[in-house]
Specification:
The chain has 500 residues and is α/β, with parallel strands linked by helices. It has 20 helices and 11 strands. β6, α11 (220-226) and β7 form a beta-alpha-beta unit. The longest helix is centred in the last third of the chain and has 22 residues, at 439-460. The protein is globular and about 70 Å long. Bound molecules: 6-O-phosphono-beta-D-fructofuranose. 6-O-phosphono-beta-D-fructofuranose binds at residues 131-134, 183-185, 188, 191, 242-243, 328, 467, 470.
Length: 500
């Protein structure tokens, strides 16, 4: 059932009207309320009290989720029902965090491979060639877990722009470089084109594919046909969506960098969130409550975008990763029955690390006409800093900045005499904090956002697991490359077809 057909939607619309009287500067001093809206999940502390909701709104949001049968849909997902309706496919990324995985042949194969590569020290550089979820997931986890990286250096090539691979290969030598063709479909143009360039680069030193290429893919046959050896193809279930695939062999660059014990800790952090998500009642179910808040802010308070601000420099790619996760999952216009949505789904997801964001778009967040709800992510302790001088003070100030910003957004500072200095406040923010960034925490954080994405998708009544919207551009690219049907294209195209 799409949101507009949920029996609680009209109640929430009227509550949204009356919620205009709500003031965060009152709500946040109601300590009973705050206690009810603060949660612990694995190593994460999640504080929802900075959202413009009161008990009445929360109860009706919970009723909305019940009416949408979200818990039933979550169980169907976990049981492997084909809930990716348009592709008649199950959704199986949760299986990758279950203990049973460690008994599977595929796990033992990749486990042995990673240990051999790390022990042999044969490769100084790993080059991950992939795009979308085959790039953003591994890049985000690799960057976040820098202090845990004691293996080969990993580089990421994603874009078709040849400067991307050229800049990376200028740092590598053929004899000590291993390429990962990271592609679920093994058909993505950007990835295959870059893989050919890598092959040519190796050929300059007569290095064979078999010794320098491996692949993470769901399309084993295509990888073998390309020339990858059977032993170097690490395949995974087609039910694992690209943006949900970091846990699969798509995470191979991270496994090589941090080792399998740390990667198992990464998986364990996700499993804690999964067990909570699968087994906890709606009113205490953190990902589901955060999915409800996505819907409350997007559809009832009518805020069209949502910001993600990690106060942890090593999470610098996290906003882009979650941008793909949420917007490629929920950027849809029809419901699961193919009917047009009469209420929009996904907000625009965007963000940047703090403090940097404070010197970039926080002006908009504080004084823009539109309110942008944000999630502020805070690592309370620094990890892996090797510096002289008072770097602890720097981290203390980083945390204080994060809190100062959410307080300023909440309470504002009214100034009727100088309107340009007036801060209306009442701008919602969720605070997610944890001690020090480690594999377990990063696993929990990513799994949390996966489940927020899935919960809100169930509430919107859409299929969060396909991505047909990326196909038309690819089709036109193929036509232009072959100079087919040019009469269908705008005249402006001509000058670009002859560009050098
Ligand atoms: O953007 C479309 C998409 O299919 C993403 O969902 C996916 O993460 C990316 O392209 C790369 O796909 P593949 O892993 O199949 O190369």
């Amino acid at each position: 059932m799409q949101l507009s057909k949920n029996p609680y939607t009209h109640i929430l619309k009227s509550l949204a009207e009356s919620s205009k009287k709500l003031k965060l500067s009152n709500l946040l001093f109601d300590q009973e309320r705050s206690k009810r809206l603060e949660f612990k999940l694995g190593g994460l502390n999640i504080d929802l009290s900075g959202q413009l909701i009161d008990d009445d709104i929360l109860q009706n949001l919970i009723a909305l989720a019940n009416a949408a049968e979200v818990k039933k849909k979550i169980s169907e997902l976990d049981q492997g029902n084909p809930i990716n309706f348009s592709e008649k496919c199950k959704v199986s990324h949760l299986d990758l965090r279950k203990k049973a995985r460690f008994e599977q042949k595929s796990w033992k194969k990749i486990n042995t491979f990673v240990k051999d590569i790390r022990q042999s020290k044969k490769f100084k550089n790993i080059v991950n060639i992939g795009i979308g979820g085959s790039y953003l997931g591994p890049l985000t986890a690799y960057t976040a877990l820098k202090p845990f990286c004691d293996g080969p250096t990993v580089h990421f090539v994603s874009n078709l722009d040849p400067t991307s691979i050229s800049d990376v290969l200028s740092l590598c030598e053929q004899e000590t470089t291993l390429f990962i063709i990271n592609s679920k479909s093994f058909t993505t143009g950007e990835t295959l084109h870059n893989a050919e360039l890598a092959k040519s680069w190796l050929k300059k030193k007569n290095i064979l594919i078999k010794n320098s290429f491996v692949s993470a893919t769901s399309s084993k046959v295509k990888a073998l046909a390309w020339g990858i050896d059977e032993e170097n193809v690490f395949d995974f279930d087609v039910g694992v969506g690209g943006r949900y695939s970091i846990w699969s062999p798509v995470g191979l660059p991270v496994m090589l960098a941090i080792g399998m014990q740390n990667f198992k800790s990464f998986l364990a952090g996700a499993r804690v969130v999964d067990e909570h998500f699968l087994n906890t009642d709606i009113k205490e179910n953190v990902p589901l409550l955060m999915g409800l808040i996505r819907v409350w802010n997007r559809n009832f308070l009518e805020h069209s975008s949502h910001g993600i601000i990690p106060y942890d420099q090593r999470l610098s790619f996290f906003p882009s990763f979650i941008q793909q996760l949420e917007m490629e999952s929920n950027g849809k216009k029809v419901d699961v029955n193919g009917e047009n949505l009469t209420m929009p789904a996904s907000p625009v997801i965007w963000g940047e690390v703090g403090n940097n964001a404070q010197h970039s778009f926080f002006q908009f967040l504080h004084q823009g006409k539109e309110t942008v709800p944000i999630d502020v992510l805070i690592a309370l302790s620094p990890s892996g800093v090797s510096l002289d001088g008072d770097w602890e003070e720097s981290h203390k100030r980083l945390v204080i900045n994060a809190i100062a910003q959410v307080e300023a957004l909440a309470h504002g500072s009214l100034n009727s005499c100088e309107p340009h200095k007036d801060f209306q406040g009442n701008r919602p923010a969720t605070i997610i904090s944890w001690d020090a960034t480690d594999p377990f925490t990063v696993g929990s954080l990513i799994a949390l956002y996966e489940s927020i994405t899935i919960s809100s998708g169930f509430l919107w009544g859409i299929n969060s697991f396909d991505q047909w919207g990326v196909e038309l551009g690819k089709k036109l690219e193929r036509q232009l490359l072959k100079r087919e049907n040019l009469e269908q294209f705008s005249p402006r195209v001509a000058k670009f077809l002859n560009s050098k």
